[in-house]
Amino acid sequence: LLLLLLGAFLWFNRPQLIVTPAEWAGPQGSQMKFSVTDKRWYFFEDDVTSQVIAQSLDPRVVSFRRHAPIASANRQGETTLTFLHKDRATTVAAQVGPPENPASLVVTPENLTVTVGGTKALSVIGKYPNGQEADLTAAATYASADSETAFVYNGRIEGIQAGATTIAVRYQAPDSSGYVEQVVPVTVKAVEFTGLEIALDPASLASDQSGRIEVFGVDADGERYDLLESSQLELTLTTPDGEPASERAVIEGEYLVARSAGDVVLRAAFGEWTKELRVAISGDSLLPQGTFLVSPAEVDMKVGEFFALDIRSASNDPLEIASSDESIVYAWEEGELSGGAAGEAEVTVKQGSASQVVKVTVSEAEYASVRIAPRDIDVRLGDVAALTVYGTTTDGEEVRLSPQSLSWIQQPLSEYADFNRETLEIVGLRRTSEPQTVQVGYGDNEALTARATFEVVGASESLVMADDEFLSHPPIGLPGRTVVRAPIHLGTGYGGNVFTSDAGLVVRDFGDDTMWARANIAPGSTIIGADGFLFDGVSDADLRRYLLENPLGPHSRLLVRGPDGVERLVELGQIGRVVQDVEVAKVTPVNVTPDAFDAGLVVSVRLAGDYRVLSAAREPLTDFTTIPAGGSATFELTGIPRSADDEHQILVERRIGDTLLPYPLTFKLESQ
User: Fold this and answer.
1) DSSP state letters, 432-456
2) Whole-model pTM?
């Protein structure tokens, strides 16, 4: 009997992973933060949440964030979630129900105070009539009543100037006619810091582990204020001897992501204060040696659908991904799949000597509607926001649509944001004064369209440098600022005096017959981005690798920071030009009298649409004319009154569906 009791005791207290919650059910759009405990025998318990690898059997139903076991409910259905820790694994059943509005929202903190430049993340819990609760933080939308006092992005509030405002937190389920709202009071106060605190959780990392960064400003009373992801906070990463550390680790949002063994130094700078933290990265992996996991093993897709395989490996070797029939399913290098035509194919994923074959079946689909998520897009200056487009089939199944299947009727204006139609990422370039509209369609079907709004928020109007960023010309990096690294050869036509830096490419003196000169880029400028890819913080090796794989050339779109600190978007070509959505390309005046004149106005556009010309008083001067993307049209204007300087203000109006967008333009009547 004693042996039986001992055996029962050992069985019930055997080593096991305990996942909380043990099962999960939530509405579409909700999320869940899982915790994992390593329980061994009777006395030993250890929180290993930061050390687990979380994987979903069907990422379309539930997917995990890259850096933490936080699950997102993507669409209705059931799946199994697996949590791996070293040589042990445990599973959790997950069920996603239809999206619906809760009876109320509970937002925490419910009354908050931040400092100027300080931040605070909100948590949003939906309470449903049946007693269920769901974390709706990621699906909610946020709006500040006074963005000059505090702005909000991705649920995180940042103070701009001392004062008080409110944040409206709203949740609206797809296809719902209304929303649920909770208003949060916010107080912003000016605080003088006496120093910074910086920490990493966990304090040391394995070579494929992520740690959450924490940065606080501390005042004279010892009170701490959160500064994480503040627009005024600068985080940099180097090796202990000051060299770039991107091969060992990178910073991604609020996480430090380890790549390979070796110590790194994480440095935080906020105003006059700096603080450093040395982080040890071991050569160990969270996964047992030789582990190579690709999930799922079989995929059923629709034509036009986008699907991302979940690939986990203990190796850092490059992946090789190939489709047996790219007309049926196209496989991208990171494991994303795009359904092209009905049929069956195999996708082979290789890494070194390991490989796995995924069977893919693509079926025809008739879509009844499309939608953009999130419905209201907030992107901070210099940051990237990703959007997703979903299609609902006639039988009610919702799938994520591939970027290649979409047609963009209305894109973000290039004045405010740079939009990558391949990745569906928006980079904020200039703060918007009011919400802007984007509109997408599925293929050539004019009936399948969806709209969303986006706003660029931030503490400044645009991506400009501080007045003291550079003290000489050409620029010489100040400590903690732009650090020039080494010369780089970009090819014929660019001149040889170009250098990599931690901010991008520094262009020094060059000849007249160079691409820089033809693009009106001044000596001393810094190229801080190209074709939607920002160079800020990119290591020398990664920057050179990017430029090797994506060489600059005619029609490359560059984000250029001039010696005066002002940034602008420039398109390279035989003659460089600043990119505009609508431009007056040519004016041909006729019938000129002392009082009036007629003119043929050639208008060139970047985006396709119907255009017409209005007077400055918004009176129509022409009918609508359809202009293709990158094309131009001539508008005949008559009876234009002359003025003292013969400089004339007009509006060119673009029509997309029921939406009219005006573009203010100026042209001048040259002396006759």
Assistant:
1) -SS-EEEEEEETTEEEEEEEEEEEE
2) 0.66
